[in-house]
Amino acid sequence: MLTQIQISNLVTIQELHLDFSAGTTIITGDTGAGKSILIDAIELALGSRATSEVVRTGQEKADISLTFDISKLSEACDWLKNYDLDNNDGLCIIRRTIGKDGRSRSYINGMPTTLQPLRELSELLISIHGQHEHQALLKSDAQRALLDRYAGNYDLVDKVRVLAEEWNERTREVKELEKATKERKQQSDYLKFQLQELEDLNLTPDEFQTLDLEHKQLAHSDELLQNMTHALNCLTDNEETNATQCLNQALHALETIQRVDPKIATWIESIKSAIILVSDSEDELRRYLDSVSLDPERLQSIEQRISLLFDLARKHKVAPQELYDYCQKLAKEYAELEGSDEKLEKMKQDLDLLEKHYHEVAHRLSQSRLKAAKRLADEITTTIQELALPHGEFHVLFEMENFSHPLPNGMEKVIFEIKTNVGQDLQPLAKIASGGELSRISLAIHLATAEKHTIPTLIFDEVDVGIGGGTAEVVGRLIRRLGESHQVLCITHAPQVAAQGHHHLRVEKQIQNEVTYTRIQTLTHEEKVNELARMLGGMEITQKTLEHAQEMLDKVLATAVPILPQ
């Protein structure tokens, strides 16, 4: 429930502080007084589009704060907890500032936020029914949404939408696979030929690198034998002098004088290590030398193999060392091609199951809509007959959509039908010519569906336009009745509606020193009588109009019903 609003420097409002209570609060004022500015301020605070024009002339920024009591609103509390914005005191404070440069900043419980989450939260707190909203009700989409809201179909509507979107995505994937499979099958023979050509080579991992190394060894075998034999001579094989012999002689000489200086022991150890290294190198050289052979036939075989690898590499436009991986890649593509029919069939089966699930959920949604439509039609028919349309009759028509695939909004089109006179046929709401009739029907629809709202605060912005006399009194009673279970804010020009309020605010403009100010004040009982008299009598308030105003209030109070806790 909205408990407080604070506004500064918004258009013609300099400073404003208002406290709100449960029940129906009526907002009135002269034509042009700016009655809707309060509603505009609430909409701005809750994320509607803002421009620099809303900032009061000469000021840096406009500032709007709304305070809500959400202690009994579990959905709003859960939403705040989900965003880590709850303050555990049962209050929600929404604030928005709008600079003269058009930039705005929004806060929830003191924490900065963007407009999208702010709008999500606002849908849990306030519902606004504007004076032009009946035009939106002429559209089938709005009628369907209203019926679903009345029926409480939120979960079913979400499931149907999600299933339809998933079906569309899966269908796109199936079509893409069908196209890809068709294109790849056209190349199947060529792909098979390429793969067979490579598989006939019996390629092995790193084969080219291994062959290349062996080719270098065979091609330079003479040079290898000559230089490695010489290296062995230098290390050990030369009987006259070699490295091993020289190292052993040096070792013997140092061991002879080791007793003279302790440092000699370090050198002795180094020479011993060198002797071991020379011995290890000798062994490795001899093993390598044993593996090197002069084999012209093997060399020729390797050159032929390498030549074949180079030819195929050029043909497939890859490097020779990449041939094995390329062969594996072609094998994988061919296997996928061979298995694409099976995969496609599986995807189609899954798609059929998804469509079946969609139809099951969509059918449940249709049944829920049908049940709710009868109740809604009865409620609206009763209400419009009270609103000076005694022969009015409301009906909800369902037309099955002609579809070949799941639709996000369900299987049927919802059409609101109405007849206002005896002998007429029911016809779509959009074909009603009379603006006054449309206003009354729209109001009846709002009133019927508003009682289904879990949203605690409902705002009616001149929805009684075009209605007067006894009909306006009925409207007022209905709005007052709604205020017994909800918090209602209602802007009205009709005194019959204004008299029904539990609370009353008057909006007026004042000009001081050529500057316009908008002031909003809460009326006492006496001030409310005077305001009703003004609305009844116009410029001149007489004793009779005052008595009439008092009589209207007395009549309301005589039948007053206590407001339920909100």
Keywords:
15 strands; 566 residues; 6-stranded mixed β-sheet; 18 helices; alpha/beta
Strand order across the biggest sheet?
Answer: 2-1-4-5-6-7
Report low-confidence residues grouped into runs of 5 or more. none
Compute the average pLDDT: 85
Specify Rg, calculated over alpha carbons: 45 Å
Q: How many beta-strand elements?
A: 15
Q: How widely separated are the two ends? A: 7 Å
> What structural class results from the helix and strand content?
alpha/beta
Helical amount among residues, as a percent range?
A: 40-55%
Q: If you had to describe this structure to a student in words, what would you say it looks like?
A:
There is one protein chain. This protein is an alpha/beta fold and 566 residues long. Helix content is 54%, strand content 17%. A 6-stranded antiparallel β-sheet has the order 2-1-4-5-6-7. Strands 8-12-13-3-14-15 form a 6-stranded mixed β-sheet. The protein has a 3-stranded antiparallel β-sheet with strand order 9-10-11, with helices on one face. Strand 1 and strand 2 (13-19) form a beta hairpin. It is elongated and about 145 Å long. The model has no long low-confidence stretch (mean pLDDT 85).
